[in-house]
Amino acid sequence: MNRLLRLRLPLAALAVWCLLPRPALAYIGPGAGIAFLGGGLVILSSLLLALGVLLAFPVKLLLRQLTGAGRIKGETKRLVVIGLDGLDPDLADRWMKEGKLPELKKLADEGVFRPLATSYPSMSPVAWSSFTTGVDPSRHNIFDFITRDPCTYLPILSSTEIRNAEKTLKIGKYRIPLGSGSIRLLRHGTPWWKILGERKIFSNIIRVPITFPPEAFHGVCLSGMCVPDLKGTQGSFTFWTNDESLAGPEAGGEVHLVGRSGDVFRCPITGPANPMVEGNPILRIPMRVEVLEENQRVRLVIGRKGKIQHEIELRAREYSDWLTLEFEAAPVIGKVSGIVRFYLMGTEPFGLYMTPIHLDPANPAMPISHPKVYSIYLAKKHGPFATLGLAEDTWALNERVIDEKAFFEQACLIFEEREKQLFDALDNTPTGSVVCVFDGTDRVSHMFYRYFEPDHPANAGKDTEWGRDKILAIYQKADAMIGRVRRRLKPGRDCLMVISDHGFCSFQRGVNLNAWLRDEGYLVLKDDAPVDEATGKKIGRDWLQDVDWSRTRAFSLGLTGLFINRKARERDGIVEEGEELQALKDEIVAKLSELVDPKTGEKVFREVFDAGRIFTGPYVFEAPDLFMGYRRGYRNSWDCATGSVPAEVFSDNTKSWSGDHCIDPREVPGVFFCDRPINTDQPSIMDIGPTALSLFGVEVPRHMQGRPLFGPRREPGTDSPSFPAPAATEPVKS
Questions:
Q1: Beta 260-261 vs 264-266: how paired, if at all?
Q2: For residues 12 and 376, is the Cβ–Cβ distance under 8 A?
Q3: 8 A C-beta contact, residue 462 and residue 657
Q4: What's the rounded Cα separation, in Å, for the pair 250 and 248?
């Protein structure tokens, strides 16, 4: 660590030792339950670690001075990489030319601005993993948010394997876990900052996707995308209402119908399952909501009589501060805390929204930072902050329990929290690397893209005016932040990059590949599968549960992938390796390449990719066998992503999630800004890691496919493999 952070983190640990004596539970979801780990032991270990750092600091400093360890040669002493997830090069170029993004325009004029080739497929967990490791997905093994377990065909997270403690001690109705279970990162490859750390070059890594659980290295890390909530899900909101039309969301949370008694609504808070009691009952906290002042305010009283946790007043159309919720799983030894915000939509009808229950960064129930005290340090210095991997609650807006105003305000609050963490890192990391990823540009683009297109199916019944400028507004928020960062940097000594993992386009029409596979005879449903009355076709429920695997040759799950039911890989596979497999893939590719949308008369795919032909890494066997290179405007439908089989292949996308990027990667490159020139017109996201290493004089490992962006001009044909030049994209509709 650098000197300042070496001193501040141990001191923060000493301070929180007295502030956080409570026990904690380590949640190991989604769907896997929780495992007990005494919070006192966590804090004690952090304290001992902090004391060890303090005692060892003078010795390590002397050794560094004698050996030169961590000394950075050359003029550049610090690399700052700001990730603006989903920032689109076409929109950025347009708004820079219109004078609306002055700081990015200055950076482009003084340095360089290029499209940045993204990953195959073009989605955040894949692209950021390539950023981290300098290799393609067949070498880091992240191909989507989810994949299927080949032994069960059920969905599993691609990035993390989570297991419960195997042994427990039974005392009456209680079960005390003997151990803490395990959480394992499934992304392969070595992060470039870990390679820097082997040379004692410090890095501060904030919210880079697919860093959960955090890996140990010479530096600090706050985990990003795929950190779960306290329930073990990727984000489950709660909404209490007396409006029956809002009951029963399709996904993403819970809606509870509540009745009014006088001026009071009873709104119990549902927490995680309790693994310390037989039957895993759900933990709950009582909450009473009192309506005040002519229905313009409410009072929230959270907790049981005699154990009130919070009593706050909340006005309509405003967020509360972060509030800590404490759930008691067992007397004395079993408590776990999380943090939430509340938002009052109104009282007539009544609507109260609660964010997913984020892991409490000041008392984390699972490892969300390296070292463990880093999240505690940030929380104690700057206050509570969002920890959920997908923190901006897109599903709450999709299900219309909140509106665009509430969503945008939430995104801005999270953006501002991230800014504090970035500037703290800049203050405390004078040499080495600082990386901070902001998600708001991506989430706002997903949810507000329909405002660009009056004919978008998602506009039906929704506002089409208020949100017209909100994508520009979040870009401008990022632009102003870039200006503040640049004013803190020293030209020559510091190097700045601003990048995104992919761009954006409209998502108007969904394609259900499973329905197409059924119609073409590649996927067969069970004899007792449900039947659609209108068409007479068999249909299948989510997660492929109605598929007859003994007769199915291909199926789809996730956002771009299609799997062959291979005998050598899947539990009930029927397709032989070799000629049979390749012939089937070629046949499906040929047919899909000619697939036409009956509504528009347009072909759906620019190209369908055979994984065996575009990838050569060791994990290609684990990948989907085919990837869908959709044209702009199309994507796997929502029901295709969850493995269902509806009657129709095509459907309009009517959700607020109206923009996307899970299409042909050449259509949606990211952005690359830098304050110095580079050696190619076609940079790739795989190039950032090798560039960081070479900038500090560290040899680039031979396994990395990316190439350094500084140095002699690249010769034609020497750019990073498997990432062709970005395609010319269609103009955005205003």
A1: antiparallel
A2: yes
A3: no
A4: 7
Contact 430, 449 (CB under 8 A): no
Q: Which one-letter amino acid corresponds to residue 239?
A: F
Any idea what the Cα angle at residue 123 is, between residues 122 and 129, rounded to 5°?
Answer: 100
HEC letters along 203-264 = EEEECCCCCCCCCCCCEEEECCCCCCCCCCCCCCEEEEECCHHHCCCCCCEEEEECCEECCE
Q: What gap in Å lies between CA 509 and CA 513, rounded to an integer?
A: 13
pTM: 0.90
**CA angle, 150 then 156 then 158, to 5°:** 100
Give 42 or 489, the one with higher predicted confidence. 489
Residues written for the chain: 734
Helix H segments across 579-725?
Answer: 579-593, 611-614, 638-641, 688-695
Of the candidates 615, 633, 634, 635, the residue with the CA atom closest to the CA atom of residue 624: 615
Task: With residue 152 as reference, give the H or E element that holds it.
Answer: none
Q: Say how far apart CA 615 and CA 722 lie, in whole Å.
A: 7
CB 184 within 8 Å of CB 175: no
- What order of strands is seen across the sheet that includes strand 342-347? 253-257, 237-241, 350-354, 342-347
Which residues make beta-bridge pairs with 403? none
Class of residue 152 by CB neighbours under 10 A (exposed 0-12, middle 13-18, buried 19+)? exposed
Cα–Cα distances (Å) from 572 to 151, 577, 585, in that order, read 8, 14, 18
- List, for residues 431-486, the tens digit of each pLDDT value: 999 999 999 999 999 999 999 999 999 999 999 999 999 999 999 999 999 999 99
Note whether 497 and 131 are within 8 A (CB). Answer: no
CA dist., res. 137 & res. 476, Å (int): 32
The tokens describing 682, both together, are 């076609």
- Integer Cα distance of 360 and 339 in angstroms: 5
**Nearest Cα to Cα of residue 688 among 192, 78, 119, 122:** 192
| CB burial of residue 488 (10 Å; 0-12, 13-18, 19+) | exposed
Question: Could you tell me where the beta strands, DSSP code E, fall in 461-538?
Answer: 494-499, 505-511
Q: What is the pLDDT of residues 299-347, one digit of tens each?
A: 999 999 889 999 999 999 999 999 999 998 877 667 899 999 999 999 9
Full set of structural domains in the chain with CATH:
78-142+188-212+391-503+668-726 (3.40.720.10), 237-354 (no CATH), 508-662 (no CATH)
**Residue 134 per-residue DSSP state:** S
Residue of 709, 688, 696, 610 whose CA lies nearest to 208: 688
